[in-house]
Design goal:
By secondary structure, this protein is mainly α. Helix content is 81%, strand content 0%. The chain has two helices and no strands. The longest helix is centred in the C-terminal third of the chain and has 32 residues. The protein is rod-shaped and about 90 Å long. The N and C termini lie far apart (93 Å).
Length: 70
């Protein structure tokens, strides 16, 4: 009985280390891009482009107003 718990804990550690080594090996390979939420990602990318265009328009309007006031 004295050796049961140490043996059990060693087996548990070996089992956990085996699981983690498999995960590390699979992470080295490049995983295919998930198609989950692909539509939402596309919408976010489009929104980023619109935001940049709006900022550029705002800057151009500010420059035009500054030139008119001078």
């Amino acid at each position: 009985m004295k050796l049961f718990f140490p043996a059990l804990s060693i087996l548990a550690l070996l089992n956990l280390s085996a699981c983690t080594s498999k995960d590390e090996g699979s992470s080295k390979q490049e995983a295919p891009k998930a198609k989950l939420f692909e539509e939402q990602r596309a919408v976010l990318e489009d929104a980023k482009g619109v935001n940049k265009a709006q900022q550029q328009q705002n800057e151009e309007q500010k420059k035009a107003i500054e030139q008119q006031t001078q």
